[in-house]
């Protein structure tokens, strides 16, 4: 339906011109190149130009520098800057060393600040002490311990009054008491064990702290302030280095980006003797641009062939869908990309998914809310699921008009339709007299979609020239006649009262013969290719074929009945909103508003998600499985 016509392009030239050609080649838009490895292994004597990319490592180092030192270098390719890889490596190393040295000096001072800040916190908690710290630590016969003790443990110290220690509390907060204790060398182990059992946490005062705590605090604060000033000076020096190297690093990055693109492009180049070849695919409408791009190169040949002319290369598939269908391509890609000779199911999926979702989730208010949310997600976040939500939301609102449901209220539109003289609307889906009609309609919609899927399969089989699949497949002509006749007969005989539709002649023509052809599909396929019909004997084939035929007939029934879920979810949605409305009627004015809001949110999230999944299941299992394989290769341009 929407698969773009493409051409196979072969660009052949002399090896000395390769770098210049690659400069232009990498600028081609919407060109799907073929990896050299796919051709080299199939063509004897050919070689690949793939080699180690020296620019990749330099680019990685440069980007690390950008991140680490907050450099802002534009991603603009430059060429002919007369830089060699050796020169670029040397300059990058020089700049990295200079910036690294400045950063190391800053890091050293930051560590110094951290050490002094930690000490400041400890000393501030004992600032009420009036004795120089160095005098306390110089005591020879007693041992001091500074730290903090839980407040509840302070109370417990009275149980250890007989122990030889002195306890002093300087400060306390909600949880802890900042304190010290001292004892003699003889009893220090015993006293330490006592305080340890009371969860005493020791704090070490660094050796560089001198004087009484108040003086030490001032000295530490002054030292920290001096360090901050030094860091400020070092950062100014670092900024000067960055400004000085910014221009040159921008030039180096531009050159590396250009060289990296050239080296990466070489994985698409095949060498044969002194010639090289680049093979790829491009849209038929853009072929002329390729020829114009390389017209100045003498000795360069460009051959243009049909996409399938080279059987060694599988043509990629490029989908061109309209604005409505394009977002639904995400569902198709989940199943697989169509091959070049297949049909693109995206428009069919877009129509059927929107239709089925709207039928199963019909509500004007909820549909418009879903469309609004989807539109906002698409506009601001470019989410494909948001674009899908916009479309299915509008479909839901449309069918909500048919059901007469606005946030579950079926009275608003009913009065409007009555006023306008539209007496056949709304459809009351919860009416017991309408239930059977609803389920039959669901089966009818499913049967029609299955028949359309069979037609798609016949079209694909015709394009592939697969006559056996076209004529004898359960989803080909035989299956179409069998399934279509039975459906038509049921409608004529049970719906319109026409008798004798299923007579010996029609049964033979439209049931018996198609069943026999479906049964004999594989033998007939082998016969068309001039092979023996029953390779393993008729007996083995008959047993296997009989059960396969039984499974095929059973699948017709189960696939058709599967669409009953369409009617089931219509009733489910209406039933859930009926519960919400009933709860509203039994609540007060404020309560009814709350139930209205959260009830609709609950139904939209829960049932909307379930319906979306169920519709996708119908697409994949009841329709895709009949005509779509999804074994294609996606078209991927070199500049993507």
Describe the structure.
This protein has 640 residues and is an alpha+beta fold. Among the domains are: 1-114 and 247-313, no CATH class; 126-202, Alpha-Beta Plaits (2-Layer Sandwich). Helix content is 60%, strand content 10%. The chain contains 22 helices and twelve strands. The chain has helices at residues 18-25, 36-40, 54-69, 85-124, 133-137, 151-156, 188-197, 213-265, 287-293, 329-335, 346-360, 364-381, 384-403, 412-420, 432-464, 467-472, 477-495, 504-519, 521-528, 538-561, 564-585, 589-627; strands spanning 6-14, 31-33, 47-48, 142-150, 166-172, 176-184, 201-202, 269-272, 275-283, 301-306, 316-317, 633-634. The strands form three sheets. Strands 1, 2, 3, 8, 9 and 10 form a six-stranded antiparallel β-sheet that branches. Strand 5 and strand 6 form a beta hairpin. Helix 1 crosses helix 8 (213-265), helix 3 (54-69) runs parallel beside helix 4 and helix 21 runs antiparallel to helix 22 (589-627). The longest helix is centred in the middle third of the chain and has 53 residues, at 213-265. The chain is extended and about 120 Å long.
Short description:
The protein has helices at residues 18-25, 36-40, 54-69, 85-124, 133-137, 151-156, 188-197, 213-265, 287-293, 329-335, 346-360, 364-381, 384-403, 412-420, 432-464, 467-472, 477-495, 504-519, 521-528, 538-561, 564-585, 589-627; strands at 6-14, 31-33, 47-48, 142-150, 166-172, 176-184, 201-202, 269-272, 275-283, 301-306, 316-317, 633-634. The protein has 640 residues and is α+β, with helices and mostly antiparallel strands. Among the domains are: 1-114 and 247-313, no CATH class; 126-202, Alpha-Beta Plaits.
């Amino acid at each position: 339906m929407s698969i773009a016509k493409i051409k196979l392009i072969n660009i052949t030239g002399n090896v000395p011109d390769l770098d210049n050609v690659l400069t232009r080649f990498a600028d081609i838009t919407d060109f799907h190149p073929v990896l050299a490895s796919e051709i080299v292994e199939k063509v004897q004597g050919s070689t690949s130009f793939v080699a180690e990319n020296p620019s990749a490592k330099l680019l990685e180092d440069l980007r690390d520098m950008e991140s680490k030192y907050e450099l802002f270098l534009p991603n603009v390719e430059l060429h002919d800057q007369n830089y060699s890889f050796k020169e670029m490596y040397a300059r990058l190393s020089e700049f990295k060393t200079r910036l690294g040295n400045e950063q190391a000096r800053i890091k050293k001072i930051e560590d110094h600040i951290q050490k002094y800040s930690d000490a400041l916190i400890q000393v501030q908690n004992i600032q009420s002490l009036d004795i120089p710290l160095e005098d306390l630590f110089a005591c020879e016969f007693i041992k001091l311990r500074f730290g903090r003790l839980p407040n509840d443990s302070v109370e417990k110290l009275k149980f250890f009054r007989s122990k030889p220690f002195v306890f002093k509390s300087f400060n306390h907060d909600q949880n802890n008491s900042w304190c010290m204790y001292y004892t003699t060398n003889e009893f220090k182990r015993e006293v330490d064990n006592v305080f340890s059992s009371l969860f005493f946490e020791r704090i070490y005062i660094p050796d560089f702290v001198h004087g009484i705590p108040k003086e030490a605090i001032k000295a530490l604060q002054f030292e920290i302030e001096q360090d901050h000033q030094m860091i400020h000076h070092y950062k100014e020096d670092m900024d000067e280095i960055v400004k000085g190297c910014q221009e040159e690093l921008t030039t180096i990055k531009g050159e590396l980006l250009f060289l990296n693109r050239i080296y990466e492009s070489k994985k698409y180049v095949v060498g044969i003797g002194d010639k090289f070849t680049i093979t790829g695919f491009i849209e038929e409408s853009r072929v002329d641009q390729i020829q114009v791009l390389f017209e100045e190169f003498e000795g360069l040949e460009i051959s243009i062939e049909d996409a399938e002319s080279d059987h060694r290369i599988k043509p990629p598939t490029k989908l061109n869908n309209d604005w409505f269908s394009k977002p639904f391509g995400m569902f198709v890609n989940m199943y697989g990309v169509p091959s070049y000779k297949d049909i693109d199911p995206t428009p069919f999926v877009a129509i059927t998914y929107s239709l089925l979702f709207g039928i199963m989730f019909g509500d004007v208010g909820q549909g418009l809310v879903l469309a609004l949310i989807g539109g906002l997600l698409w506009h601001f976040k470019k989410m494909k699921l948001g674009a899908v939500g916009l479309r299915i939301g509008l479909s839901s609102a449309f069918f909500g008009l048919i059901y007469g449901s606005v946030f579950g209220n079926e009275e608003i539109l009913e009065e409007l339709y009555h006023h306008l003289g539209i007496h056949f609307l709304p459809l009351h889906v919860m009416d017991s007299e309408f239930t059977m009609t609803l389920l039959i309609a669901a089966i009818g919609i499913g049967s029609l979609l299955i028949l359309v899927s069979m037609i798609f399969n016949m079209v694909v089989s015709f394009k592939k020239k697969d006559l056996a699949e076209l004529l004898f497949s359960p989803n080909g002509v035989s299956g179409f006649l069998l399934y279509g006749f039975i459906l038509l007969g049921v409608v004529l005989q049970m719906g319109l009262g026409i008798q004798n539709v299923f007579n010996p002649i029609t049964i033979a023509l439209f049931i018996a013969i198609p069943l026999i052809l479906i049964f004999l599909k594989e033998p007939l396929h082998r016969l068309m290719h001039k092979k023996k019909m029953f390779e393993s004997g008729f007996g083995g084939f008959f047993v296997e074929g009989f059960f396969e035929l039984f499974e095929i007939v059973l699948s017709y029934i189960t696939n058709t009945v599967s669409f009953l879920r369409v009617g089931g979810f219509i009733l489910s949605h209406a039933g859930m909103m009926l519960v919400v409305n009933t709860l509203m009627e039994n609540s007060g004015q404020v309560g009814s508003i709350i139930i209205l809001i959260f009830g609709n949110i609950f139904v939209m999230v829960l049932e909307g998600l379930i319906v979306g999944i169920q519709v996708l299941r119908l697409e994949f299992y009841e329709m895709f499985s009949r005509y779509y394989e999804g074994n294609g290769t996606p078209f991927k341009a070199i500049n993507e």
